[in-house]
Amino acid sequence: RPDLAAALRELRAQYEALAARNLQAAEDWYRARCARLHERAARSQEAVRASRREAGECRRQLQARLVEMESLRGAHQSLERQLQELEERHNAEAAGLQDTIGQLEDDLRNTKNEMARHLREYQDLLNVKMALDIEIAAYRKLLEGEETLFNIGSGGLTSLNSLPSPTYSFQPRSFSSST
After folding, report:
1. Phi and psi for 2 in degrees, rounded to 5?
2. Residue 170: phi, psi to the nearest 5?
3. CA–CA distance from 33 to each of 9, 25, 26, 72, 156 (Å)?
4. Are 120 and 149 in contact (CB under 8 A)?
5. Which has the closest alpha carbon to 166: 157, 146, 129, 156?
6. Are 178 and 121 in contact (CB under 8 A)?
7. How do residues 4-45 score in pLDDT, each as one tens digit?
8. What is the pLDDT of residues 83-125, one digit of tens each?
């Protein structure tokens, strides 16, 4: 019988060497795998930190934009109020100017009516003057006619020629015009 114990020992030594190699290979594989996982974890942690930094920066920018937006909203509301006040002031001024225009139009109408009345009175006075001028001219002709008759009738009386020429006095009549 061959030495079974020696064969078993040899087989055991081979199995143990194989187990040790397998164990070493598994440990190497595990270490390599852990190293890769640690590497990935480190990269992921750095990516998370970068993402957090970026998120923080975005939050700060968002806050700044919100503050700016609130500021602009306040400025917008202020400008809207100013615009409304300006429109109200403009409307009030326009109403005041319309009232002034209305008053000026009334004054103009009254002035036109007064001018028309004065014009009618002037026309009436002009008509009276013209009538009086015609009447004066008629009286002059009558007087001149009488003088020529008187001169013809006296025939040579030179003593009358030395008399001053007659003067006429005018007494104005009062006329009432109906307007």
Report:
1. -70, 165
2. -115, 125
3. 35, 12, 10, 56, 172
4. no
5. 146
6. no
7. 888 888 888 999 999 999 999 999 999 999 999 999 999 999
8. 999 999 999 999 999 999 999 999 999 999 999 999 999 999 9
The residues, ordered by sequence, that sit 6+ positions from 120 with a Cβ below 8 Å of its Cβ are 177, 179
Through-space distance between the first and last CA atoms of the chain, rounded to whole angstroms:
173
What one-character DSSP code corresponds to residue 163?
A: S
Angle at 19 between CA 14 and CA 20, to 5 degrees: 95
HEC string for 44-95: HHHHHHHHHHHHHHHHHHHHHHHHHHHHHHHHHHHHHHHHHHHHHHHHHHHH
